[in-house]
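step: validate -> pass
step: tokenize input -> pass
step: predict -> running
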Amino acid sequence: MDLIENIIFRTPKQKALVLQLYKDLKFVRGNEDVKIHQFDELDLVYITGYLPDAERQQEIFLPLAADEAISMKKIGEVQKCLFHRHKSSRLTLALMDSDSTTVYFGVTPGLLPPSDLEGVLYRNLSNHTHSIVSPSLISRMHSMSFITAPNEEVAKTIARGLVSEKLAACVNIIPKITSVYSWEGKVNEDSEVLMMVKTRTSRLPELTEYVKKNHPYEVCEVISTEILQGNKPYLDWILESVPEKAE
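step: predict -> pass
step: emit ->
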């Protein structure tokens, strides 16, 4: 089953965890055919989807709270049962932190934690990510966008609008950059300003649309990248300043 109204959650926390992971996979990471499932025999609610560049192999995502422990025996049991159910051995534990940051731990054959971790899987597994995690499996909720503008006046207007609309927590405006670019078959050189925008990853589509509607260029530059690390209080502030889009 994949309709959320058909899923029976044990606790409100579990429901929030599953829905946050569903949103992260479907809208942030661009997985197709993401579905929520219930497995009564193992008392599990989990999600299936496809990982980018994984040759369309189905991935099974098991959501956990970051402070939740699960035995390696339980992981093996889950992996075995879900393999028979979905014909996939790719089981990924999705550990959700309190700030909705998701860290993915791939638990596939040959990628199990070292022997000293076989007892329980805790949040401090982050100290051993080199053993079990591919960088491509790590997702963050914070992003940085780069936007160019013809002058400071335009940049300040767009920046104030983004912050006022809660699409950005902060916009840094860097003056006097030189841009060399190709346009309509010619090489051009112009003086511009650069905006560095800190925002929540899930709001990037709205941020991009806002800039397009309020920018004087026919084709404006809006490019974004995820923030992988940073000062946690500052990253928390970004999420507080840019809330999730209201349903």
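step: describe -> The chain has two domains: 4-137, 142-241.
step: cleanup -> pass
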